[in-house]
Amino acid sequence: MTADTPPEHNRADLHKDPQQVSGMFDQVADGYDRTNTVMTFGNDALWRRATTRAVAPRPGERVLDLGAGTASSSASLAASGADVVAADFSPGMLAEGRRRHGHLPNLSFVEADATDLPFGDDEFDAVTMSYALRNVHDPKMALAELLRVTKPGGRVVINEFSTPPNPVLRGLYRFYNAQVLPRTARLAGTNGEAYDYLNESIAAWPDQRTLAGWMYEAGWTQVAHRNLTFGIVALHRGVKPAS
Q: Basic and acidic residues bias located where (predicted)?
């Protein structure tokens, strides 16, 4: 490849090979947050605040933010005074997170596979994932791993794109994801193919009730969800049994 040849884009698919997905996120890391703000019309900040409130981190607690990406969500959690671990399988995203938020004394960074977490049993008071469970090749295994590393009585919050209950809005949302989102990403100078994958992964992702069922299967209890922005995003919560 010459200096004048643009780099090839890493295009993940719904097989969700970890190396392909990680490589794709490595390539979009520097513009990821900016593009997300444009794509969501600024709702990403509102969803992040809602997730932080749902996790309700407190000083002295240890919190795992899995699939942390550039650690915007981790920094929001760390503002509470809790000790937060930002974990992700994309070294490029973690590097961007360290560049932006590495100065925070109660925020650390760990490269991690969601299906085989490098943590001991019962380590965290709370665990959370934002827009990341959908990218794991075995999300049920990831939910079980999150349960394993959570203390008895600890809590989980999953923030993920979901299914708007209103059929008209659901159709408009699917049209936007399929036709508008990738084109806008390309205009913003981002890897549009990554946003083709984003649309495919959202369209293939199960609805709120199905994800709740997966959480129960993994061993979480008191599972409930709340729709944000008409169900474009949903917050799922659960508790690890105390015994």
A: 1-18
Q: How far apart are CA 62 and CA 58, in angstroms?
A: 9
Q: How far apart are CA 113 and CA 16, in angstroms?
A: 13
Q: What does the domain layout of the chain look like in residue ranges?
A: 18-162+206-239
| DSSP code at position 127 | E
Structure tokens at 41: 């019309």
pLDDT digits (tens, 9 = 90+) for 38-83: 677 778 889 999 999 999 999 999 999 999 999 999 999 999 999 9
- Does the annotation flag 33 for ligand binding? no
70 marked ligand binding residue: yes
Specify the CATH architecture of the domain 18-162+206-239. Answer: 3-Layer(aba) Sandwich (3.40)
- Report the C-alpha gap between 207 and 50 in whole angstroms: 20
